[in-house]
Design brief:
With 405 residues, this protein is an alpha+beta fold. A hairpin with a 2-residue loop joins strand 12 and strand 13. Helix 1 crosses helix 2, helix 1 crosses helix 10 and helix 8 crosses helix 9. The chain is globular and about 55 Å long. The mean pLDDT is 93.
């Protein structure tokens, strides 16, 4: 039986070899919580062992962030140094890879003025817009992963003592990341092959519309004629593969900006900037969210939809079977990286160009453009998803939340 030490070491190796897939002579840029310092050192070691030229680390201190929000002036919160932005753009232009190691701190922003958070996030997004577009267009390699903490574990297992909660979270975490397998690298490569086959099957169907139906959802989504179904495995401009999110269970594509009509209700809470939004409905007409309501987090939802013009449209539609590895855990993780991979989901905001055929990624007028990309979940064991072809023929894709074929 593997020890914790073995599994955490294999996690670092997995992130470097399969997730970011570091190349010989490549620079690796890591943004990481200080809570994950020991793990970051392991990742760095594997990066160098596998050919990294240089590893740059930008540390994130969640406690310091709260101090800044409490005491900094609004002008200070809105300030992003030009040298930092230019540095990221230069590293991206030179082919660096970008790894984001997140340690969720759900209660860290309780009591902080949401207006301050909103302004700071907007200013940062605006400053890094050019760099972010390189990520969205998959021009450079990037991977987002999570490192468990006691605070996050306490949110998931509130009835357990902090130490026991963290042990339980690591246990589930290792299962979901396939680190309990004898050879996690092989297991992940096989998993990606399975997702590739599923995407290929959907691409062969040439569906023009998707129809989502459940107790509280009746939503029809039009797809571009040049759409394609993809999974978390992407390829950058230099031809190197990488996985955007670990874990990943989704098959996704890009919808037409003005092709969404109907109503949808979330099936899992959305955690955004430390605030929980739940029991919400969105009503679409010609792609635009024309009405919305949330029993919890109404102000936060309204703030999201006011980010920019594109925040009232969606940029991604993703299919995840209800019997995925994360869904089978029957846990609510209060973090989109995990919860979105337990459920079919849509993303408010920016569209990924990877959901279009490569030759058609020049004309992007028909897909959404925004400074945000926020996933929310609508999958359940009662969800039916039908594909509709140009000639009107209908075929079931998901039945009772599971693949129909």
């Amino acid at each position: 039986m593997k020890t914790f030490e073995t599994k955490i070491e294999q996690y670092a190796e997995l992130v470097i070899k399969v997730g970011i897939n570091i190349q010989q002579g490549q620079t690796l840029v890591i943004s990481a919580s200080i809570a994950a310092a020991d793990f970051v050192r392991r990742v760095c070691r594997h990066a160098y062992l596998n050919g990294a030229h240089y590893v740059y680390i930008r540390w994130i201190d969640e406690e310091l962030a709260r101090i800044e929000y409490e005491y900094m002036t609004e002008q200070g919160l809105a300030y992003t140094p030009d040298w930092l932005v230019k540095g990221y753009e230069e590293m991206a232009s030179s082919g660096a890879a970008f790894l984001y190691i997140i340690s969720p701190h759900l209660q860290n922003m309780e009591g902080v003025d949401p207006v301050k958070v909103e302004k700071a996030e907007y200013a940062s997004a605006l400053a890094f817009r050019s760099f972010t577009e390189k990520l969205i267009r998959m021009q450079v390699s990037w991977t987002v992963i999570v490192y468990p903490t006691e605070q996050w574990a306490g949110s998931i297992f509130p009835d357990l003592e902090p130490k026991n909660a963290l042990e339980k979270l690591w246990e589930k975490f290792f299962e979901i990341l396939r680190l309990e397998e004898e050879n996690p690298l092989k297991a992940w490569r096989q998993h990606i092959q399975t997702l590739n086959k599923r995407a290929a099957l959907l691409n062969d169907k040439y569906f023009r519309y998707l129809h989502f139906i459940s107790e509280d959802t009746n939503l029809k989504i039009e797809l571009p004629q040049n759409h394609r179904w993809v999974n978390g495995l992407e390829t950058n401009d230099k031809g190197s593969s990488f996985i955007c999110n670990m874990p990943t269970e989704e098959i996704y594509t890009t919808p037409l900006k003005k092709g969404v009509n109907g109503i949808v209700k979330n099936t899992k809470p959305l955690v955004y900037e430390g605030q929980i939004i739940d029991q919400f409905t969105l009503t679409f007409k010609d792609g635009e969210i024309i009405d919305f309501f949330a029993e919890k987090g109404m102000d936060a939802l309204q703030n999201i939809l006011q980010k920019d013009e594109g925040a009232r449209y969606i940029g991604e539609v993703a299919l995840v079977p209800h019997d995925s590895a994360i869904s089978r855990s029957n846990l609510l993780f209060y973090h989109n990286l995990f919860d979105e991979n337990a459920s079919c989901h849509l993303a408010i905001g920016q569209a990924y160009t990877s959901g279009l055929k490569e030759e058609d990624r020049v004309n992007l007028e028909n897909i959404n453009n925004s400074m945000i990309h926020i996933d929310f979940m609508l999958g359940s064991q009662k969800l039916q998803v039908n594909g509709i072809r140009e000639d009107g023929t209908v075929e079931a894709i998901l039945v009772n939340g599971k693949w129909a074929h």
